[in-house]
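May I ask for an example protein's residues together with how it folds?

___
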Amino acid sequence: MKSSIRTIRYNDLRLLIFRNVYEPAEDTFLAADNLIVNENDHVLDMGTGCGILAILAAKKAKQAVAVDINPQAVRCARKNAEANKLADKVDIRRGDLFQPIRRNEKFNLIVFNAPYLPSTTMETQSWLGRAWAGGPTGRQTLDRFINEAPHHLRKKGRILLVQSCLADFDNTLRKFHSLGFEARVVAFKKVAFETIVLIEAKSFIPTVRKRTRRGEKSEVSRVAVDQASGAN
């Protein structure tokens, strides 16, 4: 009988992947390869899956909090934190986005490999489906995250968000910009039928909003489009 638990490796990490838990793929590794943390950072890994990003962050950061709505992912991440001797630095919680985060709890870095692929309602109903299925436009969870994340970010904090071009990353940049963030594409990877982008948003800065005519893109959006266009 085929085992329901797989084992993968990323650099010096050995990770178990339980059944119905998202297995790290190109989008995960795009975030992992560009994950920079400082020793005093408090890091939040939203939608942690097997816990890879939280565990990588905890190797250097002061503490990492990992959240997932999938109970099997929570168990898997806990097992992996223990196996990599970082259980004391990774606080793993179950919940829907920021629901398990205390109102006054804030982080230097929030990272989220979001469910971003356009999908049907049926595809969002399984635990594994919730890890990748983003509703009809791919933005069902993305937009909720963008609206809630600023309330849990420290001054000079950052957000790293992974999504696909299929979910309109220019829209993501505009939304961050409208909330007073600097936002840009810092890395991207072309895969079979899409381009995966890693967006960095830096926390609240004074902004003078420039009026644009209807249909005209903001400066931050235009720069990001230019950066990602090399993936085509």
